[in-house]
User: What shape does this take?
Amino acid sequence: MSSSSSSSDDEMMKTFFLMGVAVVEEEEQEKCSTSVQHKRRIVLHRNRLEGHNRLFQDYFADAPTYPLYYFRQRFRMMRSLFLRIHDAVVEHDKYFVQKRNVAGQLGLSSLQKITAAMRMLAYGASADSIDDYVRIGKSTSLESVKRFVRSIINIFGEEYLRAPTNEDVARLLEEGSQRGFPGMLGSIDCMHWTWKNCPTAWQGMYTGYFHEPTIILEAVASKDLWIWHAFFGLPGSHNDLNVLHRSPIFTQLAEGRASPCNYTVNGHKYNMGYYLADEIYPEWSTLVKTIPAPRGNKHKYFAQQQESARKDVERAFGVLQARFAIVRGPGRFWQPCVLKDIMTACIIMHNMIVFKLLYYANFIFNKEELMRMRCEYNI
Assistant: This one.
């Protein structure tokens, strides 16, 4: 009895040992196969040529599927302006030129890359949400956005984001005089852009009264919503006064390189223009603020007119966010320099659109058509 029981125990232990070895070998095989699957690159055949042909037929053909109204609505600009930007960007950065890979297959076209970038800027869409229509991968979309905004700044920044020239100053003074503010060059204010992917170590520095990380944009805008000055990048813990002390807005004036600004008020001659501002700004000769608690009809009238004219920069912020939803929603990029390029490029394209609309309004359309365009584009 003892010998038979001991032999059965040995057989049972041997069986359990073999089962354990089999389980360990199976787990090791699964780990190896899983590691191989993770290292293996997934190749998707997106049929890029079909995506290009569909995009071209929808918007850029001689008889497109969608008329020009849909193009302006979805690309936030006229097709002629988009094609001008497209040609300039392709000429400036060869990344957008369509190429062939080592297998001889055509890659993404310039229309696909720039359209993906514009969709992300105009709609605030994520990088992988436009893959099903444009047929472009997430990493390529992100790279296209970064290169596109840098190209916009390098090509058009000097022309469409510049200090006012002598002719511009004369026109701005004329507009300000007609509105009851001789010497006014525009209105100044700040806007906060939420930064969703702010690093944890920086969140205390970038968090202010919004209770979430933000980056501040200081801008100066005129009545036609042209943005003459843009200073972006300071953390959201600052206020408008702190931003003003670090802003280069008065650098040319301090160095004596500003355009001449001569006007007369009540028989007194002045040679320095000013901007309309809210009550947080300091008592400087280059800033005209409202009266916080006006008393009397004279002070009430001045406060009403000043606050009405100062809303130009608020309207410019609203139109900028309506045209480019990426600056209305939270910023999802990790690098502040990329966010700065995106904001600057959106302001430049905003000014290009304003110039295009004002050109057609001044030289082609009648007053009724001009009013219709202002209602349609909120200008």
Summary: The first strand starts at residue 184 and ends at 194. The radius of gyration is 30 Å.
